[in-house]
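ARCHIVE CARD
CATEGORY: sequence design from structure
SOURCE FIELD: tokenized fold
FIELD CONTENT:
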């Protein structure tokens, strides 16, 4: 049931400008998969204080609250998300202090890696092809090509479920393979501090160019997708298991397993979220039957059917 009470709009309007509040907003506009239902209220706060106030209001009014980055590793079901969805899309500042790059949560981690290149700082080259935001990268300890966020994160600023600002050291986030304690603690990341090292600009540039070429040649970037769907199972590679299960090109509705990279599921022809999730489940079922391996999702699924 949609939360669309005038009182909610009135309360949000007391916190942020009305131009930052969208009612019944199609989340397909904000997701890399280009599918999924609507948000009752989609809010793009202008500063930290507004985030804190929205969190406190949602708590007091007992309204569901969801944080949405740029939707690169996320599927929203066709029924959408009830309550308030907050986007940090206006939090995009990146700046340097010594050998530390400080980035707000709505900045793309790709942009942070290129800012590091400009500043002749090394340590974030691995992130040059990760499409998520800084907040999302911390949320799942994003990684690629042998590097991950925990290798260079020093600390971050978050809002806790009570609306309080906290500064946390990286060691307090329980960062591990594609996981952290951010979801279970209910933290909203506002800012991250990346501790880097001075490096040779040409070496950094060459590394990033090589990684970009690898990504573009191997990944199906021509179709909407949520990126790599599954975590790497111990002793295996998810893509190889899917490929050996002869699932590439197999699909349901408008979604199918990519013929270019078996670890990706693409929205090839106006897929629904139901199609997309059904393909994920088909892949998990088939790989389990053929190889006895449980594929665990890396991608998050939110919302109602």
């Amino acid at each position: 049931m949609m939360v669309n009470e005038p009182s909610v709009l009135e309360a949000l309007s007391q916190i942020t400008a009305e131009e930052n509040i969208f009612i019944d907003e199609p989340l397909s506009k904000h997701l890399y998969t280009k599918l999924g239902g609507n948000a009752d209220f989609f809010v793009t706060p202008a500063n930290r204080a507004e985030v804190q106030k929205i969190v406190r209001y949602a708590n007091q009014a007992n309204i569901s609250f969801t944080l949405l980055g740029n939707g690169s590793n996320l599927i929203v079901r066709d029924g959408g998300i009830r309550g308030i969805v907050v986007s940090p899309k206006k939090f995009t500042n990146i700046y340097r202090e010594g050998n530390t790059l400080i980035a707000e949560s709505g900045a793309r981690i790709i942009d942070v890696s290129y800012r590091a290149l400009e500043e002749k700082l090394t340590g974030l080259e691995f992130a040059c092809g990760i499409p998520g935001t800084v907040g999302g990268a911390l949320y799942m300890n994003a990684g690629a090509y042998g590097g991950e966020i925990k290798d260079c994160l020093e600390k971050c600023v978050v809002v806790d479920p009570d609306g309080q600002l906290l500064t946390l050291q990286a060691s307090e986030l329980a960062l591990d393979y594609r996981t952290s304690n951010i979801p279970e603690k209910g933290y909203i990341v506002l800012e991250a501090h990346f501790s880097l090292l001075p490096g040779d600009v040409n070496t950094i540039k060459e590394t990033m160019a090589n990684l970009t070429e690898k990504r573009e040649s191997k990944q199906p970037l021509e179709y909407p997708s949520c990126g790599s769907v599954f975590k790497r199972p111990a002793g295996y590679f998810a893509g190889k298991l899917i490929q050996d299960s002869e699932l590439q090109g197999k699909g349901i509705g408008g979604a199918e397993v990519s013929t270019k990279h078996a670890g990706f599921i693409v929205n090839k022809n106006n897929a629904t979220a139901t199609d997309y999730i059904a393909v994920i489940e088909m892949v998990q079922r088939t790989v389990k039957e053929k190889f006895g391996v449980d594929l665990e999702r890396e991608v998050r699924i939110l919302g109602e059917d």
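CARD ANNOTATION: The chain has a mean pLDDT of 95. Helices lie at 6-15, 48-61, 109-118, 134-139, 182-185, 201-218, 238-244, 273-291.
SHELF: design records, drawer C
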